[in-house]
Amino acid sequence: MKNAFFAPRWSTVSLFGLAAVAFWTGRQAHSPSLGNPVVREFPARLAAGVAMAPPEPVAAINPAPLPGGIDFVARWRRLSAAPRTPGSEREMAASLEQLATLDPPQAMALALAEANLRLRDDLRNAVLRGWASASPDAAAAWAMAQPAGSRSSVMEAVLAGAAHQPDQAIRLTAHLSAERPELASDFSRYLISGLTDQGAYASAAQFATADTSEHRTAWLNTAFYQWSAHQPQLALAAWEGMADPGARVAAFQGLVIGWASAAPSALAAYATALPPGENRQLALGQALTQWVGRDPAGASQWIDRFDPSGDLDPGVMAVATMPALAEVRPEVAVGWAQSIMDPGLRTSTLRTLALQWAQRDPAAARRYIATTAGLSSDDRATLLDGVNSKPGM
Known about the structure:
Blueprint: H1 37-47, H2 72-81, H3 86-100, H4 104-112, H5 117-134, H6 136-144, H7 148-162, H8 166-179, H9 184-197, H10 201-210, H11 216-230, H12 232-240, H13 245-262, H14 264-272, H15 278-294, H16 296-303, H17 313-320, H18 323-328, H19 330-338, H20 343-360, H21 362-371, H22 377-388
């Protein structure tokens, strides 16, 4: 058989485009410092706008010991004295995030004492992530009391931290959404992001499925995209177990996009076993477009095993329009485009290829059109129209 990448026995696609809860009752996960009155007072004190006293010198800091016997004082002294770089700032943030799980007031005091405003925000958010991972309600109370201009950033950090305890994060999001319905979509978006970042994909999918807002489709898309990009077989099994038809449609869209980004050849193989219909077309379109972009020879050889089909059009168009092929072997690119089954897509692809070819070598393009016997009259006319067109028309 001829090499499908350079001389397919027939041609074909374009990208098949698609695509907040706490009871303020103090019920929450335990942190070693939650019994400390200062910790309980801290959110209310800051929420009331009381200016914090300057933090104690680092030598006077005496937080609870960190896990593993880490000497926080020594670490913070070293980090504070070091030149600021992206790496050193990440270390500072990680250090405060860890401290915040045990002593949020001290961690927040150190963060807010930072003179660099950009870094101050980053450190504050790191503290909130650590605080919320242990005490999501208290961290959320502090964050919600901040000025509106910074509330988005701080609440995103809170829900990212709370996602370490998925059930608590979902509870917190529901309560926040009930209290502030105008911010519910933001809270839900932060929650989905936090859960998927933690790998709590099943919890994210469960939350999205139960959502009743107009954002349900977006949450399902996002949850299943992230799940399938990392764990495609588990995401597929969860999708197959869904009973709600509407949720299945939205989840499948995210699933195939994520799966295509991770393992397009596996998705293509799965798609060929699906019955004809929208799901098969969608899965093949996403899989082949991604596969062609990453492994054009392998993808074109796989496509060439099948008879022309509308389901394969996205992959065929992706092969035909690859710059490396269209520029070096334009006649092969045209051959692929000729096997696109959708008339409108075939015409637009052929015309684009002819226009590009004419810009590089108009004589060769016209010679090919005039002498190639395998062109249909419609395809010949389309190619001539492309060759005779001016760029931008």
